[in-house]
Amino acid sequence: MERLLNRHWHHISIEQLANLVETDLQKGLSNIEVTRRQGLFGPNVVSAQKKMGPIKRFILQFHQPLVYVLLAAGFVTFFLKEWIDAVVILAVVVINAIIGFIQESKAEKAIESLREMVTTEATVFRAGKKTRIPSREIVPGDLVLLQSGDKVPADMRLSQVRELKIDESALTGESVSVQKEDDLFTPETILADRKNMAYNGTLVTYGQGQGIVVAIGDKTETGRISRLISEAVDLATPLTKKITKFSHVLLYVILALAFLTFAVGVFRGESAIEMFMASVALAVGAIPEGLPAAVTIMLAIGVRRMANRKAIIRKLPAVETLGSTTVICSDKTGTLTQNQMTVQHLFCDGQVFDVSGIGYQPEGEITKDDQPIRVDENDVLQDCLTAGLLCNESEISQNDGRWEIQGDPTEGALVVSAIKSGLNKDEIESTLPTCDIIPFESQRQYMATLHHNQDSGERVVYVKGAVEKLLSMCDSMMMDGNESELDSELIINKTNEFASRGMRVLALAKRFHPEDHNHFHKNELDGGLCFLGLQAMIDPPRPEVESAIQACKSAGIRVKMITGDHVLTASAIAKQLGLSATHGYDSETIPTVTGAELIQYSDEELVELAQKAVVFARVAPEQKLKLVEALQAKNHVVAMTGDGVNDAPALKQADIGIAMGITGTEVSKEAGDMLLTDDNFATIESAVEEGRGVFDNLTKFIAWTLPTNMGEGLVILAAIIAGITLPILPVQILWINITTALLLGLMLAFEPNEQGIMTRPPRESNSPILTRNLIARILLVSFLMLCGALGLFLWNRSVGVGLEEARTIAVSVFVFVELAYLFNCRSLTIPTLKMNFFSNKLAIVGSIAMFIVQLFYIYSPWMNHIFHSAPIRLGAWIQILVVSIVAFWIVILFEFLENRQITKEDLD
Ligand code: ATP
Predict the structure, then answer these.
(1) Of the residues 390, 410, 449, which should be mutated to test ligand 1's pocket, given the most ligand atoms within 8 Å of the CB?
(2) What kind and span of H or E run contains 463?
(3) pLDDT for position 193
(4) What residues are annotated to the active site?
(5) Got the DSSP string for 265-318?
């Protein structure tokens, strides 16, 4: 087989190719052969190419302004022969880089492993059976079926095409989809023109096709040109970018200030060395350099939490955006409902029949007025059920005693109703084998199959689909056993009757195929059908969705249903779920709009309508894009679900495109920012909650960390202005910043979501993180730190305490005020005293760890030597404790006043 690689596949006939790769064109490979080839060729995966090696990524850790400042300080200190300080500063730089590198790699890995959870699937023919398998299991020679929405799983030579169009932009850069053919091409044909080939990683945008795999994994064109299959994980989000910019601006201000300090000090006659140290201390203390990295880590932790709740984030900014979502536009089938269809009623031959039984278990019967009906007594009924059985691509089977379907649940329900009526599936399928299919597509709204009757020789076409669509294609209907004039009104009335009870209604029709070949002429039918009947099926709402919608209501999020289904079915389900309440309407009012109506509105009218309507029914996928834009025109942050190939533009346009992990096409999964592994609406609500939680925790971290930087900066500035010895040295500042960030600050990322998180309105997406109150709080705590550290330093010096001990006290003030303040920051909305102290155990563990390492800092001679610290006496401990406790209580008082002011503003 290896010798076959790198052939001009586009130049070889299909039969020749099938011989070469030893594949049966009808049945595909046998299972034994597949296993053999898997052993021979390995999995079908393109080896990921990292954009950057670990060494380069490590070196990049040094490419930060703070590091430059530190390195400069380190070298100058070295020349000043302050050996230990120089080594400490350089060690901090290296340790900082190692921590940054590890954290960044972890964040990337976390996101990458989520990507791996999303397996791409493909449909293959093996041992005569059509099966869906993970793409990585494909082997050369496999017979693969392609249909719109699929990602081509390997390089293949196309053996059959039906209006197959493939977007090859990932490979060729050409954005227009290529129409495929199954002709032969000359050997010199360039890749972009080899229309009988489909290449790994490209996307099927229309039609269907079948092909033989000629190359897998790294041997495919995508693998060979080393295109980055694993796009580098982008850890930047709008928030991290804002913060990076903010810290850069701050950096320049602080550097200028530091330079000024140095110049003024030297001018005043202070020692240049002292002044240099003071400037370095100022810069190191005041620049919040750890902030962007901490934000990334917290976002990554949020991503993991969401994954645990079945929402996979594919693009990191979505974590932030989720928290400010104001509208969720959801599909109905499968997302709001269970997608577990059961046919309950049939309307055919002018009569209504009932079907008993529930689920996919083919046990039940057809009755009329409670009397069992034998299907062979009524030809039209039999034809209607046969149409449902044959115009169908699903299978039902029993697994561990449970009946399951493979394929579309709507179709599965039709198979079950046919079997319940007593029809024999195998017998019918062998008498009327399928010769050709026009598969169901949302925008087409019907599916058709062509069958060749082995007994009569006739060719018959069965069609099923949305009622309105089929009526437009029917000329007649079966009534009282005869073909009669089409009575659309009767059919529509019956449809409305079923649909208004929340049922999905499918129409079935047939016609004889006039031509004597076994193919549909083109990919569309032009009409001439005879209406056979309706099958109405229930699809109950998912039980957990109602409370998720309630939660959205309290959270100020509107939920809209955008569905391809009938308007009455959609509004009945919307009513059951209480969707209207999220818009402030009463439960009986369900403003609806249909796709046909949408076409008639101008863009301005659409903007108004999009805000008001709750249900959008019979909407074509293309119209979803317009709806997203209309909602965004009113500054809504829109989350939109989608599963089909044509949903991709809407998913991209939405602020958060949500793809379906189970039923979604590969194309929609590529377009989405987030993926639901269970297709469930309730998962979106959980993800919004987590998004809000992540943002809360980020804000808490910022509120916690900035006062330290400000406090340190202020202490140094005050000392310089007052012309006193520095109360804290650069290495000591580094000690405070690094240990507290790791042992205290990061613990805020593990803060559980606050109780009232889903009862507040969405955060405005462009609102600043630092609100007025938060700035006031940061200033207050910075001031407390300044007073505490500088005050105790001066007081202790004045009573004769040694310089090193006084400095140790100042450093400890920072550490313990930060420790106490951590507990003030565990919530910015719930007062500290009302918080459950034990709900974030890591905060407690971190605090204990911080206490222990600070003991080392104070009492270990080794640490004393490195950091110029010194043991302190019990009296000093009491002072530090008092300052920390006072600071803690002042913040509590601040919270109290803040709450009063907020309540007063609310009342006003
Ligand atoms: P949603 O957008 O909420 O998932 P949906 O699944 O009902 O809604 P579509 O899949 O676009 O939307 O289906 C639209 C209509 O097409 C359905 O109401 C039904 O009448 C018809 N239909 C659905 N599935 C099939 C199918 N497999 N074959 C034929 N017709 C179908």
Answers:
(1) 410
(2) strand 459-465
(3) 86
(4) 331
(5) HHHTT--HHHHHHHHHHHHHHH--THHHHHHHHHHHHHHHHHHHTTEEESSTHH
Atom number in ligand 1 closest to CA 504: 18
Helix (H) or strand (E) holding 134: strand 129-134
Residue 487 corresponds to which tokens in the numbers above? 């009575």
Residue whose CA lies nearest to ligand 1 atom number 1: 563
User: How close is the Cα of 159 to the center of ligand 1, in Å?
Assistant: 29
pLDDT exceeds cutoff 60 at 4: no
Residue pLDDT, tens place only, 466-476: 999 999 999 99
Percent pLDDT > 90 in the chain is 49
Hey, what are 858's tokens?
Answer: 């104070």
Alpha-carbon span 651 to 631, nearest angstrom: 14
Alpha helix segments (H runs only) across 799-834: 803-824
Q: What is the pLDDT of residues 593-604, one digit of tens each?
A: 999 999 999 989
CA separation, residue 251 to residues 30, 244, 274, 284 (Å): 66, 10, 21, 10
Instruction: Give the distance (Å) from ligand 1 centre to CA of residue 893.
Output: 59
Nearest by Cα to 46 from 232, 229, 168: 229
Q: What is the mean pLDDT of residues 633-642?
A: 92
**858 vs 762: CA distance, rounded Å:** 46
Burial (CB count <10 Å: 0-12, 13-18, 19+), residue 380: buried
Closest atom, ligand 1, to C-alpha of 443: 11
Closest-CA residue, ligand 1 atom 19, reads 466
- Span from the CA of 340 to the centroid of ligand 1 (angstroms): 13
Between the CA of 618 and the centroid of ligand 1 the distance, in Å, is 9
**What does the longest C-alpha to C-alpha distance in the chain come to?**
114
Nearest atom in ligand 1 to the alpha carbon of residue 465 is: 30
How does residue 271 score in pLDDT terms, banded at 50, 70 and 90? confident
**Closest residue by CA, ligand 1 atom 13:** 564
Q: Which residues pair with 212 in a beta bridge?
A: 143, 157
- What pairs with residue 594 in β-bridges? 617
Rounded distance, CA 695 to CA 487, Å?
Answer: 58
Distance from chain centroid for Cα 84: 49
Say if CB 842 and CB 742 are below 8 A apart: no
For atom 7 of ligand 1, the residue with the nearest CA is: 565
Ligand 1 contacts (CB < 6 A) are 331-333, 408, 410-411, 440, 442, 445-447, 464-466, 504, 506, 563-566
Give the pLDDT confidence of 150-203 residue by residue, as tens digits: 889 999 999 988 889 998 887 777 778 889 988 888 888 888 888 999 998 888
- Lowest average pLDDT, out of 499-513, 658-672, 878-892, goes to 658-672
User: What's this model's pTM, rounded to 2 decimal places?
Assistant: 0.84
- Radius of gyration of the CA atoms of the chain, in A: 34
Q: Are 591 and 612 in contact (CB under 8 A)?
A: yes
Query: Whose alpha carbon is nearest atom 20 of ligand 1?
Result: 466
The ligand 1 atom nearest the CA atom of 618: 14
